[in-house]
């Protein structure tokens, strides 16, 4: 008799975004004049850079001719893209072998798939609040999960704690949902902790391109990281690939668990279960690293940074506590007037017709906090912040 993976039954309903949609639908049905602005979206709005589009057009043409057609490619990605990523790391002072780089259809897949090659009895440490994928993928695998609590006291950047040693540690910096970014010293403490406990650090750097200050953009900027860390990165937010799908994962040769090279296991996993990202998409991704591509993504990133500044300037003016926004597209704010997350959600929807994301949806430590994103248009961001200012001054 077939059975199912009972762990799936232990997953909590992913009710956050459906609950937001329900509340907004109900509200707009009752208030047909409400011109709602969505400031909670985690998707980008700027289109693909021209250099990417051009490269993809060219690749499509190649695919249409027998002489330049590409069939199955290397599962772990084409050399032209792995080399471009390797050069990008070199500019940050990090030397990688191309075979330490694996191309994927995005960070989310690899963050889930990597668990295939790790022991099912491994314990897991995540931060609270947390990007829900880290939790759900481990619940599916039946692993025990520990939580490192973030709060305004630690700037939403929890540090290692001997009472919370785990085999697998997830860190996301710049962080989703909080926008907080670890500095060099803090990441060094995590790397030392992981090496000391023979833990694997799963480092999610999906938002590294948003960093402008002197803060780490890769875990491999930290001494000792190559013996404990795997890094997941994505073209989604950097270059507008949320719908195009491409990312990469770095698994250093020096990462050895139980005398086994993790890189070798991951290669085995990928070559067995994955058939690579399309040639066309990889050509598009490689164009991100050309001079033109870099210029064009910088324009888009600056566009979002300007939006983030409009938000943080408004919060500064209102004397509302927040983290993020400067080196991240996310702004994590303390709900004014000591409101709860959902209370502030309803208040903002009703009084300003603005939608954000209640912090509580990312974990218990998110209660009383709220996430705004910089991914809307400049016009809408300005309008939303005007409305926020107005409704809070009326409320005072
Ligand atoms: N990691 C974090 C922290 C994210 O916020 C996201 C997407 O929102 C991802 C990974 C997934 O990225 P991708 O689009 O490459 O799957």
Walk me through this protein's architecture.
With 396 residues, the protein is of the alpha/beta class. It folds into 2 domains: 7-48 and 292-391, Aspartate Aminotransferase, domain 1 (Alpha-Beta Complex); 50-290, 3-Layer(aba) Sandwich (Aspartate Aminotransferase, domain 2). Helices cover 39% and strands 14% of the residues. It has helices spanning 16-30, 50-63, 79-91, 107-113, 132-140, 184-196, 236-239, 262-273, 279-287, 291-317, 341-352, 378-395; strands spanning 37-38, 101-104, 124-128, 145-149, 168-172, 200-204, 229-234, 247-250, 256-257, 260-261, 322-324, 330-334, 354-355, 357-358, 369-373. The protein has a 7-stranded mixed sheet with strand order 2-8-7-6-5-3-4, with helices on both faces. A 4-stranded antiparallel sheet has the order 11-12-15-14. A hairpin with a 2-residue loop joins strand 9 (256-257) and strand 10 (260-261). The protein is globular, with a radius of gyration of 22 Å. The model has no long low-confidence stretch (mean pLDDT 96). Pyridoxal-5'-phosphate (PLP) binds at residues 42, 106-108, 131, 172, 176, 204, 206, 234, 236, 242, 247.
List keywords for this structure.
single chain, 396 residues, alpha/beta, Aspartate Aminotransferase, domain 1, Aspartate Aminotransferase, domain 2, 2 domains, 7-stranded mixed sheet, 4-stranded antiparallel sheet, binds pyridoxal-5'-phosphate
Topology:
Blueprint: H1 16-30, E1 37-38, H2 50-63, H3 79-91, E2 101-104, H4 107-113, E3 124-128, H5 132-140, E4 145-149, E5 168-172, H6 184-196, E6 200-204, E7 229-234, H7 236-239, E8 247-250, E9 256-257, E10 260-261, H8 262-273, H9 279-287, H10 291-317, E11 322-324, E12 330-334, H11 341-352, E13 354-355, E14 357-358, E15 369-373, H12 378-395
Helix pairs in contact: 2-9, 3-9, 10-12
The chain binds pyridoxal-5'-phosphate.
The site of pyridoxal-5'-phosphate has 13 residues, from helix 4.
